[in-house]
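Pilot study result, target chain (272 residues):
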Amino acid sequence: MSALGTLDFKNVKKQYHVKGETLDVLDGINLHIKPGEFVSIVGSSGCGKSTLLRLAIGLDDDYQGDILLDGARIKGTSLKRGIVFQEHRLFPWLTVEQNVGLALENSTLSSNERAKTIAEHLELVGLKGFEKAYPYQLSGGMSQRVAIARGLVNRPEILLLDEPFGALDALTRANLQNELQRIWQTEGITMILVTHDVEEAVLLGDRVVIMEPRPGRIKRTVEVDVPHPRQRADLRLAAIKDDVLSEFGHEHDTALQPAAEGFGFKDYLFAW
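Predicted structure:
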């Protein structure tokens, strides 16, 4: 396992200024993520989960504390950090391979190398043979596979996933969760998943970080000591899920709702 992909949040605090008032969004976030680790972050809407990803991707440097990738403070967006959103955000006038290729616009690869790596990643996500298809010809699950390929095509050290399956039906969501397990094991990179779905968080994560809102703080971290690949019917996972849910109390229903947080696509044009 490569030593690259170590992410550290050190006493991170974030505030917004709204109508002359200061709103504390994150307060004292300390989190160490090891290379190749899969960390799930759960919490109700407004707890700062997506804000944390925004800081990690490098879109906002107006915060206190430090966010370090491999020991160096994050400054701006970088090909070392990929991201996948709840909505696939594919350009309808581009083919599948062209949509994936957009993430290579700033790459130093030759045209032949680009074509090869695009083909490799489409095969990785199970879309070999759909290179020339357009988004309108794809299902929602297939479109999200394209988004995952786009997030991985630069071979980032870290892939950030912001509710990537939240807009999908239950069956497609379950299938893609299994696929993401396989892809993570194949690629061996660090993955950070933000989700409202506790079952998903436990199924995929090595650890589940539970956040509490207003301001966002880490309430507790739960280890998921179950080998991969995992089966969702595993009673050990069910017990861990119940343990995580117990931290929400009356917030059970809120914690499992689709995310209300999100950012404009224009903010992420160069941060796939």
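One observation from the pilot: The first helix runs from residue 49 to 57. A full batch analysis is planned for the follow-on phase.
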